[in-house]
């Protein structure tokens, strides 16, 4: 069978169960593709031996019958997840050489379901970035190009390696994490599906922490159905993460009926940003028309505090990061700077962190330190937390008024060229997350679905935002949108 | 609010990140760009609003107050840049 690496999870699951293909064959097909895809710089740590072992075990399990859906599915794992005995360094120099003695709960759940890990995926350092340009491993590259132009484009970030690997069919799916848009923006830039579930659905245990009140893991897949299958395998209540909820995990795939008749879809006027490209505007209008044609009830809504989401995020996320990243001190793991004669422990901390953290991470840690420092805590941090409460209230009011889901663009543009934002000030880069960051602040589930291409042939995504804990319903609306949009374009292979 | 070179140096010190003297002016400028962006929050009327502590209202779970972990010295030290005789080793802290 040819091109096994191009399978969706659902196709592979069905073929595995029928005995048409083995997990070993699927895994070998992916490993071969990964080997030939160095130019994408998506996989940064390769674990072929582990993958083969896991695949053989999966085949045994499948033969015995009653294997879960993810059994034998070859995945890429974002470098932010701690994986036992396998380098896990959050794309940072400061975690150079770090091999965890434990497994993150999300990867543990996936492995218990029989999934296969092909290796670790590139990302922005500590998940801080929107273009995968802050990685210690160098840039991940988008498999998509602008027509015949060979300019290297960003796959987005921070889950850029995950997005690139899935879009290029190096694996069947990948894990991502999303603090301000880090699953949904790269998914949109690469023509794949990515869902960030409700805060608390996935355990954060063993996921390198960036901003703990915002971070959530989620799947990055080739279809909405795959997102439903893989998300169910990732979620669990975990006593090791006190913010993970003790709710049953529904069968998300069973929710995919495609029937959205009578569902109320909100179109928030505040997401119509000044200077938004006409193509994004058109995509949004097209998506609205598709949902309407599928029987949804379209309603204009207002989320008045939208404008303040990014500034609130750029107080809260750095504040939490400055606290979380205090643990990187050169004592317990990772990099320690070479010290000069007479250097004490303070010099060790300062030199280690200066060498170990990249520029963007240093900047965010220091901004966080500043907004939490004496005299500014109220003016910045507490005010941002109040604005966050208002942003969440905007959504609650919309849902109380009967809105089932909210449709917005996923990103303000298509993928841009690597290096194109080099001279922009940091705030320009932060604007990438303008449509996605509200969802993290409000703790809601959000999904990016590929819905069209721009005039240069690059994919564009739409975002649907759902009610808390109703990922099944959200996935079903996304499924209806996916069906209507009929996005089938794939990047031409140049790598 | 404008951040000068001296404040930038102070923040770097608090964050325990060594920033060379000559990089401070550029750093201060970046802080000012970001803080200028954040200043927008002052436009919002937050009178009477409680700062959010938890995005999902929930009671933290409780468990029995018993030891559930431990005896993993080798694993704890396995990734240390410098471990000796069962301890993390660091430069001299006390004279």
From TrEMBL, chain B:
<keyword id="KW-0648">Protein biosynthesis</keyword>
<dbReference type="Pfam" id="PF02686">
    <property type="entry name" value="GatC"/>
</dbReference>
<dbReference type="GO" id="GO:0070681">
    <property type="term" value="P:glutaminyl-tRNAGln biosynthesis via transamidation"/>
</dbReference>
<dbReference type="GO" id="GO:0005524">
    <property type="term" value="F:ATP binding"/>
</dbReference>
<keyword id="KW-0067">ATP-binding</keyword>
<dbReference type="GO" id="GO:0050566">
    <property type="term" value="F:asparaginyl-tRNA synthase (glutamine-hydrolyzing) activity"/>
</dbReference>
<dbReference type="GO" id="GO:0050567">
    <property type="term" value="F:glutaminyl-tRNA synthase (glutamine-hydrolyzing) activity"/>
</dbReference>
<keyword id="KW-0436">Ligase</keyword>
<dbReference type="GO" id="GO:0016740">
    <property type="term" value="F:transferase activity"/>
</dbReference>
<keyword id="KW-0808">Transferase</keyword>
<comment type="similarity">
    <text>Belongs to the GatC family.</text>
</comment>
<keyword id="KW-0547">Nucleotide-binding</keyword>
<dbReference type="InterPro" id="IPR036113">
    <property type="entry name" value="Asp/Glu-ADT_sf_sub_c"/>
</dbReference>
<dbReference type="GO" id="GO:0006450">
    <property type="term" value="P:regulation of translational fidelity"/>
</dbReference>
<dbReference type="GO" id="GO:0006412">
    <property type="term" value="P:translation"/>
</dbReference>
<comment type="subunit">
    <text>Heterotrimer of A, B and C subunits.</text>
</comment>
<comment type="function">
    <text>Allows the formation of correctly charged Asn-tRNA(Asn) or Gln-tRNA(Gln) through the transamidation of misacylated Asp-tRNA(Asn) or Glu-tRNA(Gln) in organisms which lack either or both of asparaginyl-tRNA or glutaminyl-tRNA synthetases. The reaction takes place in the presence of glutamine and ATP through an activated phospho-Asp-tRNA(Asn) or phospho-Glu-tRNA(Gln).</text>
</comment>
<dbReference type="InterPro" id="IPR003837">
    <property type="entry name" value="GatC"/>
</dbReference>
<protein>
    <recommendedName>
        <fullName>Aspartyl/glutamyl-tRNA(Asn/Gln) amidotransferase subunit C</fullName>
        <ecNumber>6.3.5.-</ecNumber>
    </recommendedName>
</protein>
């Amino acid at each position: 069978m040819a091109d096994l690496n191009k399978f969706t999870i659902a196709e592979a699951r069905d073929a595995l169960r029928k005995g048409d293909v083995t997990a070993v064959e699927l895994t070998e097909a992916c490993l071969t593709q990964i080997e030939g895809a160095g130019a994408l710089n998506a996989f940064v740590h390769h674990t072929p031996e582990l993958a083969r072992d896991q695949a053989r075990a999966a085949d045994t399990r499948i033969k015995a019958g009653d294997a879960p859906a993810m059994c034998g599915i070859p995945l890429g794992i974002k470098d932010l997840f701690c994986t036992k005995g396998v380098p896990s360094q959050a794309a940072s120099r400061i975690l150079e050489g770090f091999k965890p003695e434990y497994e993150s709960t999300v990867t543990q759940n996936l492995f218990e379901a029989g999934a296969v890990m092909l290796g670790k995926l590139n990302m922005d350092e500590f998940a801080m970035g929107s273009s995968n340009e802050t990685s210690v491993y160098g840039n991940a590259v988008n498999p998509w190009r602008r027509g015949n132009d060979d300019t290297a484009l960003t796959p987005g970030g921070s889950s850029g390696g995950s997005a690139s690997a899935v879009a290029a069919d190096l694996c069947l799916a990948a894990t991502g994490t999303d603090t301000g848009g880090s699953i949904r923006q790269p998914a949109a830039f690469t023509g794949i599906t990515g869902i960030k579930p409700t805060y608390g659905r996935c355990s954060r245990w063993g996921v390198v922490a960036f901003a703990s009140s915002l971070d959530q893991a989620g799947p990055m897949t080739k279809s909405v159905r795959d997102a439903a299958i893989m998300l169910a395998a990732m979620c669990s209540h975990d006593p090791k993460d006190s913010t993970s909820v003790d709710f049953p995990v529904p069968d998300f795939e069973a929710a995919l009926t495609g029937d959205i008749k009578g569902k109320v879809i909100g179109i928030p006027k505040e997401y119509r940003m000044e200077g938004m490209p006409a193509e994004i505007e058109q995509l949004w209008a097209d998506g609205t028309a598709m949902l309407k044609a599928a029987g949804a009830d379209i309603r204009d809504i207002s989320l008045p505090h939208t404008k303040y989401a990014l500034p609130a995020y750029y107080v809260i996320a750095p504040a939490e990061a400055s606290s979380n990243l205090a643990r990187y001190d050169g004592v317990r793991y990772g990099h320690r700077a070479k010290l000069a004669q007479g250097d004490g422990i303070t010099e060790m901390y300062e030199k280690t962190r200066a060498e170990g953290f990249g520029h963007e991470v240093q900047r965010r840690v220091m901004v966080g330190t500043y907004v939490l420092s004496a005299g500014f805590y109220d003016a910045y941090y507490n005010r941002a937390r109040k604005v966050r409460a208002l942003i969440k209230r905007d959504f609650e009011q919309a849902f109380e008024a009967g809105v089932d889901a909210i449709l917005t663009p996923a990103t303000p543009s298509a993928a841009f060229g690597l290096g194109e934002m080099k001279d922009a000030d940091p705030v320009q880069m932060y604007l990438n997350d303008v449509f996605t960051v509200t969802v993290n602040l409000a703790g809601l589930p959000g999904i990016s679905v590929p819905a069209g291409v721009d005039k240069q042939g690059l994919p564009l995504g739409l975002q649907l935002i759902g009610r808390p804990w109703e990922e099944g319903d959200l996935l079903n609306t996304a499924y209806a949108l996916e069906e209507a949009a009929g996005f089938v374009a794939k990047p031409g292979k140049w790598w | 609010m404008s951040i000068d070179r001296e404040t930038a140096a102070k923040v770097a010190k608090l964050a325990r990140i060594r920033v060379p003297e000559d990089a401070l002016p550029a750093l201060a400028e970046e802080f000012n760009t970001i803080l200028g962006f954040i200043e927008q929050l002052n436009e919002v009327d937050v009178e009477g609003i409680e700062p959010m502590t938890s995005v999902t209202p929930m009671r933290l779970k409780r468990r029995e107050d018993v030891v559930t972990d431990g005896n993993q010295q080798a694993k704890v030290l396995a990734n240390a840049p410098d471990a000796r005789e069962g301890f993390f080793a660091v430069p001299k802290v006390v004279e």
